[in-house]
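Table S7 (text form). Paired inputs.
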Amino acid sequence: MKALFALTTAALLAGCASTSTAPQRHAWITGLKPEKADTYRTLHANPWPGVNRMLKQCHIRNFSIHEREIDGKLYLFAYLEYTGKDFDADMRKMAADPETQRWWKETDPCQSPLPDAAAKGAIWADMNEVYYLP
């Protein structure tokens, strides 16, 4: 009986594992205005709880932002994993959230979009994945 239970449980778990999908990985880059860098760092050292909640409600996990200086200019690199089913719908949900909108009013002026993002009215420019080790 125990062997049958173990076999059935293993089969069910294997079936669940095979139907799950890997998260989508997204990465972006933007500039950081030197005169606003301390403000940006301070905001992200103390993120607003409602903004973090909305990120999680929109199926975002493993979200990080990194800073790098290149040739005297500051850049931000963002990475996240998306576990939902409709990325565009979840991003619209986030954009409609009043607290997230207030957050962006604080963070957006700190950033300096790359030319291709600015041409689209965006802050962050997409990055292409060239390697991944699961």
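Next pair, protein 2 of 2.
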Amino acid sequence: MTKADIVEKVYQKIGFSKKEASELVELVFNTLKTVLHDGDKVKISGFGNFVVRGKNERVGRNPQTGEQIKISARRVLTFRPSQVLKAMLNGEEYAHLIDKEEDDHDDND
């Protein structure tokens, strides 16, 4: 699925013009990028968590030559799917998880 596909779904479902649907999708993605850039976590109930974490500098090896190389420190984005999403992907019953996840969300914030 591409961003254009998401815009098309919003256009069809909500009834905005294509331009408005595109602006809405762009706003959502830009907000997500800004929050992640600032190092904050993004939690989407029923979907999962996006977290930026730091990796320290380390020594690695070039797989072709075996030569040691320095891998610089960096920030990486990780995604942890929610229990609801995991259950959906595995064809399991998930309705009972929706209420539980919302309760967990209330406890953490």
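The mean pLDDT is 89.
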